[in-house]
Structure formats: structure tokens, C-alpha cells
Amino acid sequence: MDALDILTDLENVIPYFQPIFSADEQRVIGYEVLGRYQSEGNIVSLGNFFLDDQIPEEYKYEVDLLLVQKALELVLKLEDDISIFLNRDADLLMYGHGEPFLQELLAFEKRGLNLKRIVLEISEGNYKGDFGQLDHLLQYYRTYGIKIAIASIDSDTNYFERIGQLNPEIIKINLQPLKSNAAAASFTDLLFSLSLLARKVGATLLFENIEMSYQLQFAWKNGGRYYQGYYLHPPAEMFIERDILKERLKGKFHEFITYEKKKLEALYSAAEYFQDKIQDILVRNKKAKYEELISLIVKEMDQIAFRMYVCDEDGFQISSNIFKGESGWYSQQEYIQKNWSWRPYFLENIIKMRNDRKGILSDLYSDIETGETIRTFSIPISGNDYLFIDISYQYLFDNDQLL
Ligand code: CA
């Protein structure tokens, strides 16, 4: 497909629409507009056309403008609470200082299109221009109600920093990397941070390229409110019935919820189990010193734990570490008086344990020293002191509901 073919045959440039579904309503809440070119009965994506550095900006702008016009013409007949996502790369946005594009949108506004429905999907991949000017333009667009979505983690611009600067209404996450298992683990951790950040800045997460059930589950589990992808619906020439997936999505959510509840129940039971075990030892050995107490617990939890220590409520370690090495348990004196209050959730958990007089099983995390995925069970033991028991990966693995 030659760029010139397209430019001399603009009537065959057409918009395609891919529906975006919401978790809370389980129905279509928006469409992403995608560029297509039809030639001899084939429909081809215009993605490469827009990415081609050899094609002058004004040609790209012309084709894009036509797409936007054709798309919005159809959107005028659509229910007026459905959002329209338009792809904008930064260079295209800055074309003519962003003014011609805005005028085009304002012309549609006069015809009844509320600009609050417009979401600009910004990609900054190759942008070499001035970010100050770009941000200024986006803020200007926003005064018209236009929303900003920031797309994809794969660009080399500083993604987290850009989210902080742009404060987007929507963060779009491409689930393509989730196809390979090797990438999945680190991707999951990255996404977890991203979902926390999104929550802090009040952005909504939209997961795209959902092509399989487990990707939908992943999106649901990681705070995704909006979903898009072939698994739900391919891009099409026309809009679809809004509730087309309602029953299917409800069914899927039911599956996910059941699975997640089972997992949470398992965690709860495991915490209870550890609680009973330790409480029993504590009650029977009220007078024992900590080192003695730990050695009793070690016997009881030899196949479960690999490290134990006691901290006071300010996080100062008041026992040595008891650590399970290749040839059995041994004591690591050098840990006495280290402070752990700086660790995430440390003080929150202390306060929770102090008030509930009960132990807590932590989330999954990587142990800094062993690099293994573990959980920690912590429990108040006496006065202001708390026992921390690191649960081995092997045990979690053998009880896979805990992973
Ligand atoms: Ca897009």
C-alpha cells in the first residue's frame, strides 16, 4: 500500500470503531476510532501510514482530519453519553499549534456534540518537541471539557513522571505483554504500582488488547474499569448494541469473584492456622525468653518458615534472626537493633495488630535477601513486642491458594 494511493483515494479512508466496555455497567461506554483503508475488497489498517516518518505531516494531518470528520459525523447519531477516543500522537497534536483540530471539534460541538465525550489518546513515543508547549496545549483543550488518556508503557519517555505531569483522566494499558509467561510476573508488579498511582491521581484504568479470558481477569483484578480488545469485540465499521456483552461479562465476573473469594478465604484460614499454632505455644510458655520461645516455634514451623525475629512496636529488632540455612536453623546476631519501621505497611500493621490483638498474614512480596516470593506472618507476643515469621516460598507453593 503506497501513501500516494491513499492520498489520491481519500473516499476509501474510513473510520473503524472498537467498543470499550465498563466493569461497573458491563456495557459499551465508548469507542476508539481507528483508521482503515479499503482497497479491492480488503480493509487495511492505516496504523503504518501514520507511523511512517517519510510521509509529510500535512498529509498525515489531512488523512487524520478526514477520519475524525467521518467518525464524528456518525457519532452525532449515537447516544450522547458514549465517549469517543481519538488517537493523537504528539506531533499530530502540535500541528498548526493544535488550532485546526480544535476548530474542527468546535464545529461539531455547534452541531450538538458535547466535547466532554472526546477523549484524546496521547502517545508521545517519538516526540522531539517541547513538552511544555504540548502540556500547555492539552490543558487548553481541557478547558473545553476534552479528556486526556495516556497510552502504553512501552515508550521510553518517563511514564510515571508524565502521568504526574499530565494528570490524565484515563490511563490506557496494553495487555499484549501479558501473552508470554516470562514477562507476566514483572509486568504484574509494574501494573500494581500503576494501579496505586492511578488511584492517587484519580485516573481510570483502561486495559486494551484483551484477547483471552485470563487477560480480562487480570484487568479486572488490577483495578481496570474499562476494557477493550478482540476477546470482547473487534473494531467494526459500525456501532454495536450497547448491552451486547452484558450477560457474558456478568458471567465472567461471577467466575472471577468466586475464584478471588476462594483465594481470600484460603488466606484467611492460613492466618487463623498460624495464629492458633503460635498462640498455643505462647500460652503454654508464658515465662519463656524470646530466644527460647522462638526455638519452640521453629520446631513447630520447621516446614513452613525460614526466618523469625522479634521487633518492638517502633520496629527495632530485639532478638537476633533465626534463619533456616542449608544445614538447619542458626542465629544471626548482627540483626539485633536494626530498625524496620521504614518498610511499607510496617507501622500500619503494628497498629492493627495492637488493636486487634491478632496476627496478620502479609501480601506476597520478594524477600530482599533470598529473592524468593514470600509472605510474612506477624503476631503480637507480649507487651509492645511482635514476632515476625517469614513463610517460605516452598510452603506457599505447596499450598498454592497462598500464591
Ligand atoms: Ca489507541
Helices and strands in order, then pairings?
Layout: H1 3-7, E1 13-22, E2 28-39, E3 42-45, H2 47-51, H3 57-75, E4 83-89, H4 90-94, H5 99-110, E5 118-123, H6 131-142, E6 147-151, H7 159-166, E7 170-174, H8 181-201, E8 204-208, H9 213-221, E9 224-227, H10 246-284, H11 290-300, E10 305-312, E11 321-325, E12 328-332, H12 346-356, E13 360-361, E14 365-366, E15 373-382, E16 385-391, H13 393-398
Parallel strand pairs: 2-4, 4-5, 5-6, 6-7, 7-8, 8-9
Antiparallel strand pairs: 1-2, 1-9, 2-3, 10-11, 10-16, 11-12, 13-15, 14-15, 15-16
Helix pairs in contact: 10-11
The structure holds calcium ion.
Can you describe this structure?
By secondary structure, the chain is an alpha/beta fold. The protein folds into two domains: 3-229 and 244-259, EAL domain (TIM Barrel), CATH 3.20.20; 286-402, PAS domain (Beta-Lactamase), CATH 3.30.450.20. Helix content is 40%, strand content 24%. It has 13 helices and 16 strands. The protein has helices spanning 3-7, 47-51, 57-75, 90-94, 99-110, 131-142, 159-166, 181-201, 213-221, 246-284, 290-300, 346-356, 393-398; strands at residues 13-22, 28-39, 42-45, 83-89, 118-123, 147-151, 170-174, 204-208, 224-227, 305-312, 321-325, 328-332, 360-361, 365-366, 373-382, 385-391. An eight-stranded mixed β-barrel has the order 1-2-4-5-6-7-8-9, surrounded by four helices. Strands 10, 11, 12, 13, 14, 15 and 16 form a seven-stranded antiparallel β-sheet that branches. Helix 10 (246-284) packs across helix 11 (290-300). It is elongated, with a radius of gyration of 28 Å. Residues 32, 87, 121, 151 line the site of calcium ion.
